[in-house]
Amino acid sequence: MSSDGRVGGRRDGGEELTVQLGDISPAGTRHMWQRSAVALADELAVVGAAGRLRGVDVNSGAERWSTDLDTEYVVSLATDPAGEAIFAGCRGENGAVAAVDAASGDVLWTYRTAADLGSPQKESLFFLPYVVDVAGDGERFYAAARRYERGGADAAASGDDGVRTFRSAVYAFDPDGSVAWTYRADASTIALDLREGRVAAAYNRCPGDHQCGMVVLDAATGDARLTWDPGTEGQRRVGDAALLDDGGVAVASHGDYRGYRLDERGGIEWSVDLARPTRIGGETLYAYPNHVRATDDTIAFVTGNTYPEEGREAEGRHPDEHSIAVFDADGIPRWRASVGGWVSELAAAGDRIATPCAQHFRDRDPGAHGLQLFGLREGSVDEVGLDGVGTACALDEERVAVIEEPVEYHDGDAVRGSHRVRVLPRQ
């Protein structure tokens, strides 16, 4: 993926908008921690950066409003279907979620998940309470939050200072910010999906009593309708889940590196190998399926970085790392393509999927920085090069927005890119 350096130019007859977002410390080589977010709401690009929300006019680039959320980072955003409110999830000492008026930027209410999950054990990014995902259906907003700890009470009980523990919760919020229900677990929630009265929560690590990689909750009550787990050994379980119109669920499994389509009772309708352990040059290598998106007739899975089964460093690369694989409703392959590098999140609208990416943290290839747009039926339809790493994106029927962050490799002496949002016409 090449970097074309376009700023504020035209793109196939449409205007491209670029807005600088201010200073942020450069991402490092491993660049896998979310620090920014973006959403599209009518004529606004809503950008979360450096603890603030900004509403930017997508036509002029003018800032309509700016709101301080009193947090370190805004990391997840959602809009209600009417476009009247923005729901923000934060990574910070309070692990805050907030509802903001889309027209004015006024904060409607704030909830601090740290009151439930606990305060950070250390003042470093990985230990901060983290609202990993948010969603809204016009009636309520939903959020998934977690906090990580190493050692602590569980370690004292076991005598092992290296014990890793998580506290997590899925929340449903009424329009006034009151909590309608909470689903708690001692596992690491990683993603939410919301559809037709159901909320799916994926758990990528299950080190405690909650030995279940995916839960489907009733959106009205919070009661568990369905639980599912790949049934594999170890803590790794599920990277993402997507609810289907027929009541089923598509699941990206960390436990066995496969993609699944489940029926409404959790039965396996089909599974596909995505990045299973493969012997290459004396190493056994694998990659985690990190993302899944689904329509009524297609399911798309995206894989991440290569890891070795033994040790931490890998000389080779798994042939299916950093790829998007699309299947029809019966599990028949449609197409597979490279996404260029590490994809931190997806955005989807209709039959289009956008993937912002950065280089593999072992290869450090700046040519991989960028954004790709795929059609679920035809494959790649557009790509945009970035100087820095692509970390967040949003997509609607007309536009695609991508957040770029500067990056400085640990073995280099140059900072590449800047902190900015780019909004382009959708292909």
TrEMBL record:
Transmembrane segments: none annotated. The lineage of its organism: Archaea, Methanobacteriati, Methanobacteriota, Stenosarchaea group, Halobacteria. This is Transcriptional regulator. Residues 33-114 form the Pyrrolo-quinoline quinone repeat domain. InterPro entries: PQQ_b-propeller_rpt, PQQ_rpt_dom, Quinoprotein_ADH-like_sf, WD40/YVTN_repeat-like_dom_sf. SMART domains: PQQ.
